[in-house]
TrEMBL record:
It is found in: Periplasm. One of its GO terms (molecular function) is cytochrome-c peroxidase activity. Binds 2 heme groups. GO terms for cellular component: periplasmic space. This is Methylamine utilization protein MauG. Heme c 2 binds at C190, C193, H194. Keywords: Heme, Iron, Metal-binding, Oxidoreductase, Periplasm, Signal. Its cofactor is heme. Pfam families: CCP_MauG. It comes from Microscilla marina ATCC 23134. Heme c 1 binds at C47, C50, H51. Residues 177-304 form the Cytochrome c domain.
Amino acid sequence: MPPFKLPSHFPSPLYSFDKNPLSNQGISLGRRLFFDPILSKDSSIACGSCHHPSQAFADTGKRFSRGIAGQFTKRNAPGLFNLLWQREFFADGGVRHFELIPLAPLVNRQEMQGDLQELLGRLNKNTSYKQQFSQVFDTDSLQSKHLLYALAQFMGSLISATSRYDQYVQKKLPLSDIEQQGLTVFKQKCSTCHQISNQLFTDLSYRNIGLDSVLLDVGRYNITERKEDKGKFKVPSLRNVLLTPPYMHDGRFSTIDEVLTHYTKGVKHTPTLDKGLRNNTGSPGIALSLDERRAIKAFLHTLTDTAFIRKHHK
């Protein structure tokens, strides 16, 4: 029996475990590593310190998370789920390979400050870990790829596809009137970026949504160095969005109501502002009435996956 089942109403994942054969033991090892502070320089911070299962693996309530010695991270910690369907990772898309996701926080000076060879030395000296790695990867020589493969198996198992909306798509239950109204408005005014047809609620693109007239964080530009990418960040999935405040790459909005207000009357013009964020008059913003915003919020509640939370919050 496979360790986990891919949702039938989702597209095919973009990542294959061909070179990293999945197993229940591998996922268990990855989970142990994810929540073990042994991977940080001073053994004080774990991956799970900033990615909590009860919060869809985000760091709810914090604009920025704290790393080694209380240092703040550069950006808001995102939720972690459905990573198998993404091409690039982090808000600026700075990592392009699924297995390399953990490497960035592991060695980041503001986060875990780890040295890969030092971490491997620790794990090799730990009899319990050495036994687990040997069982999963059939090796007595623990290498960095084994560490990253184990974490990848766990993170790949984080699949959120059992929300009320998913049950609606599968014709297992209806939406309420206001939720249905919200879905209709969402399709009309939000789904260009937060794509519904792929079930991911993101088109995986990078966009400038007019947060600042003077850019404090140039986002995707840091990676591409193309001027047209200044101020652009990856469109996040909206699954479990009500569980993961605050919002935006810098956590500036505390509530989803503030986010909707931004799109209605807070969008600021910059040269790279997304073309979709201009209303019929050509000025920045999306025309949303108060009733439409309430309906969208009601619909977004249907994207909360309580079964996913219960499964991983042990």
